[in-house]
Amino acid sequence: MTASQFTALFISALFTNGIIKLWLAYRQLDHVAERRTEVPAPFREKIDLAAHQKAADYTRAQLQLGIFNIIFDAVLLLVFTLGGGIQWLSNWSDATFGGPLVQGAAVIVAVLLLQSVLESPFDLYRTFNLEARFGFNKMTLKLYLIDTVKGLALGAALGLPLLLGVLWLMSAMGDLWWLYVWGVWVTFNLLLLFIYPTYIAPLFNDFEPLKDEAQKSRIEALLNKCGFAASGLFVMDGSKRSTHGNAYFTGFGKTKRIVFFDTLLQRLTPNEVDAVLAHELGHFKKRHVLKRIAYTFALSLGFLWLLAQLLHAPWFFQGLGVTSQSTALALLLFFMVLPVFTFLLHPIASAYSRKHEFEADEYAAQQTDANELVNALVKLYQDNAKTLTPDPLYATFYESHPPAPIRIAHLQKLGEHK
User: Are 310 and 1 in contact (CB under 8 A)?
Assistant: First the structure.
């Protein structure tokens, strides 16, 4: 392949993706707007029209901001690649730092920091305008800045040693460097799974052991019934940033812990909490977490092998507007443009995720009352202003969970046959 051919392929893929993303967004906008005036029949007894309309308006506001994001991200990618941004930063790094390892790391860090700074207005608007307008944001500007500084410091502490190690392996390990890098990447991610609950998450939130003894006894009984061992039950102060509610498992092996947002416990009944927990337990019992980890690691191995094939291909660099050639630039360019060439695989990943959600719902219906999970989900849809009427094609591309009407109907059917 020649450089000009790859440039044409890259531009074509970027343009096609942009058109599809915008088309899907406008489909979703129209679909939600057309169904704004009437609550879907399965939800009429539990969700009033005002809540349904709030969800529709919130969804449309997110999409409208997302449309600007789509255009901005495409333009920014072009500026960095064909516009000469990465080449300029590479020249600056070569003139400023000594040694290829530090020079390469400096270019990558500079691009990531610039992306973060340039995209921060969208995040600020989303947090302090959009989320606040619909009553969700509890974040103060001070807390936002503290989170940002902590995130940057954590990223530097964990990411810089990893980046330097990867760049060294790419240069020193010969043709099979990608196997060594993959091994480091797998080890790093597994280590993060172990240390996240105890050392990383507490940097951003406070976690307290669940104090409600009655609820704690109920949950422990459910855990015993399901044969699940956790290192603790914790309540997270999610309300200091948002009114959105959630619950999740974190950690790996003996470090597994169950975390409830304080907002979730305030809203759901004990039976509904049990049902939500049973759904999350279903992901573990069905080995979804292990499957996703294995899937991610296998995919990363394939991508690293592909990068190894492109590492010494001049057309890859030149086709993306870069005249210099180095391992760091290859790594940077590859992972910047990879989403352009994999976007059309989104429906496959989304379908795989939705399959897991259905399986977890089925497990929850076996361990608890399916109607309690229905009640919990309806409350969460309402509290999080989740639209009940997504466009089916949009959902096929983007939704990791089944659309509300389909999921509720599935659970109700499970309840009838129990």
Answer: no
